[in-house]
Amino acid sequence: MSDPIAPVDAGARRAIKPVICYPNESLPKPDVALYRAARADARKVDEVTVPPRDAACFTVPAGHFFRISSVEGPQVGDLNLWNAEDLSERFYSGKTRALHGTHVTTEEQLWSSFPHLRSMATITEDTLGWYGIDDFGGSVHDVIGTRCDPYTGNLLAGSQYHHCCHSNLTRALADHLGVPLAEAEPHVHDVLNVFMCTGFTRDTGQYFMKASPVRPGDYLEFFAEIPLLGALSACPGGDCSAEHSSDSALCYPLKVEVFAPQQGSLEGWESPAVNGYNRSHGR
């Protein structure tokens, strides 16, 4: 079959200006100034270390803060979030991407799945916020990648690799809930790729990764808008400069800390209600 012939008006069709699908000016604005004031004298109440090529769970009460930090070397992490009281409500990376863009940073929010569709967490601090978008179209903290997984590895290379992020998250959630792997796995979902530097190639539109700019001491911090159960995998790709789903990359742990604000420091704040759509679907 020959290549299709471009129509005579091909240039005019390509020149049509794009339209933003979901203008976000009307989104509820988080009171980040209030959050930062409350964070100033908050006290640490929990700390979890995520081992290299593995994952760990943590819980964050609504109105608390949690921080993900690089502690020993450049390392990216794959983050899942659920409503700690109802696992059917979980992080919706696709809608977060549609509302905010391919990568997220300070004052942007992580949104939950249908039918809830509300803010789960607000990003309050990002030490990599300086990175922006580089000359390759890459940026950090993406909501486009789906997490490295054993199924794709088997599809592409016939491998049986068990320490990819999907499997790490599955094991961690199963252990936390005390359930079999088969019961935990359906809850694992597309992630926020913390510290990962990614984009799409300009010529083929393929998803790419490059060495993360993260260094020890860098962190991404969130305010929990609802009670959260989190699971974080320290990706087997390390800084994702070459490959993932293998044991060859140099990998490091990640640290999760949870902070409780002082009583009364969040006066006027309320956890967001579930989405107000009446769910009649036209019937």
- Count of runs of 4 or more consecutive helical residues: 6
Strand-residue proportion: 25-35%
Cα-based radius of gyration, to the nearest Å: 20 Å
Structural class: alpha+beta
Question: Roughly what percent helix?
Answer: 10-25%
- On the 0 to 100 scale, the average pLDDT is 96
Spans of at least 5 consecutive residues whose pLDDT stays below 50 are: none
Domain unit count: 1
Task: Identify the notable features of this structure and list them briefly.
alpha+beta; 7-stranded antiparallel beta sheet; 28% strand; 6-stranded antiparallel beta sheet; 283 residues
What does this structure look like?
By secondary structure, this protein is of the alpha+beta class. It has one domain. Helices cover 17% and strands 28% of the residues. It contains six helices and 13 strands. The strands form two sheets. Strands 2, 4, 5, 8, 9, 10 and 12 form a seven-stranded antiparallel sheet that branches. A six-stranded antiparallel sheet has the order 1-13-3-11-7-6. A hairpin with a 7-residue loop joins strand 6 and strand 7. The mean pLDDT is 96.
SSE topology:
Layout (H helix, E strand, L loop, with lengths): L9 H5 L17 H9 L2 E8 L4 E6 L4 E6 L6 E7 L2 E5 L2 H8 L8 E3 L7 E8 L12 E4 L7 H8 L7 H13 L3 H4 L7 E9 L6 E4 L8 E6 L3 E7 L19 E7 L23
Antiparallel strand pairs: 1-13, 2-12, 3-11, 3-13, 4-5, 4-9, 4-12, 6-7, 7-11, 8-9, 9-10
Short description:
The chain is built from 6 helices and 13 strands.
